[in-house]
From TrEMBL:
Highest rank taxon of the organism: Bacteria
One Pfam family here: Oxidored_FMN
Domain NADH:flavin oxidoreductase/NADH oxidase N-terminal: 6-341
Gene3D superfamilies, per database record: Aldolase class I
Alphabetical list of InterPro entries matching this protein: Aldolase_TIM, OxRdtase_FMN_N, Oye-like
SUPFAM superfamilies xref list: FMN-linked oxidoreductases
Protein name: N-ethylmaleimide reductase
Gene this chain is encoded by: nemA
NCBIfam families: PRK10605.1 (NF007899)
Amino acid sequence: MSDPLLFTQKKIGNLILPNRILMAPMTRSRTTQPGDIPNQLMAKYYAQRASAGLIISEATQISCQGKGYSFTPGIYTASQVAGWKEITHAVHQKGGRIFCQLWHVGRMSHSTFHEDGQPVAPSALAPDAQVWVVNEKGVGEMVDCPTPRALATQEIQSIVEDYVHAAENAMMAGFNGVEIHAGNGYLIDQFLRRSSNQRHDQYGGSKENRIRFAVEVITAISQAIGPEKVGIRLAPFITQRGMQDEEAIDTILLAAEHFNRLGIAYVHLAEADWDDAPVVTESFRQALRRKFHGAIIVAGNYEPEQAEALIEQGLVDFVAFGRKFISNPDLVYRLIHQLPLSPINPDAPLFGGSEQGYTDYADFQQLRAKGAI
Ligand SMILES: Cc1cc2nc3c(=O)[nH]c(=O)nc-3n(C[C@H](O)[C@H](O)[C@H](O)COP(=O)(O)O)c2cc1C
């Protein structure tokens, strides 16, 4: 690559990012229990990766109701905010920037997390999916999601308020901004799709109605913390978890017009990252560019060369890398210097556990000093 754009700075909201290589949000399930509290180990992990143009934190529940997996962090209690403060401080000390990914799982949950035993969703339809739950013996296992309870219309505003509260907490915890998780079949995505949203009130039916919840959440958060500190993650191409919907692309492009009107910092596409995933068409990328004038981030199995080509074509501004950042904390340095990447240790847990497979991946220079490379 000659003079790659990947290594050049660009603004997102009011932040100038030093490069286009972002760290994708990744759940790692290592909070302190009880209370789903972010901790020093997590601070070390994120600080090790501070050279990313921007870190987007692992998905973080906005409320107890929004939880769907064991050991994932929250941002709705004072202890959780205090824990996150240590993390943002550690990242900023290393010169980095970090957004908090705000999460409500909706029906992607399990009865153990809910006092009344039932997750909530737009409609009482089970997702044909599983979540990771640690049982009483401390053993993590994938378990089926039960049939959720359909939210009453008057309950929906209180969830919007939970989002706002969480966003304000994120600001108090020192995050540079928030990313609203509206992809991967979680609550906002469940509202967007015809398959999971069969409501008859103003939140269901037409595309305009199905985007209403997303637009209300983004509007309220933008008013609370400023639109330049807000991004949204969407997964237009996902079909698993009962998310098949022929109207998904049109619905998301309609929502993008509203996000543009609100002036948020970015739209982040979680593109398909499984083997037979659909190819994202250039016409979709161009349509999104026309409708949304903020930054566009993409993620999903990218190699640096592909990332560079899309940026050069002007179709995207930033590329987020997930798994490469797990095993290469200094990914930016390695890409700049065209150094080999370390693979993920297949014997270490992705979810749960301690430093093994988490903070024990070394920088290239440390590996070289040890003679390991
Ligand atoms: C261990 C792991 C955890 C993930 N957790 C999240 C998450 O919390 N929120 C989210 O939006 N995406 C999550 N993802 C998806 C990633 O953000 C990313 O889109 C995906 O890994 C594809 O990028 P990659 O091929 O560069 O890894 C996760 C992926 C992995 C591998």
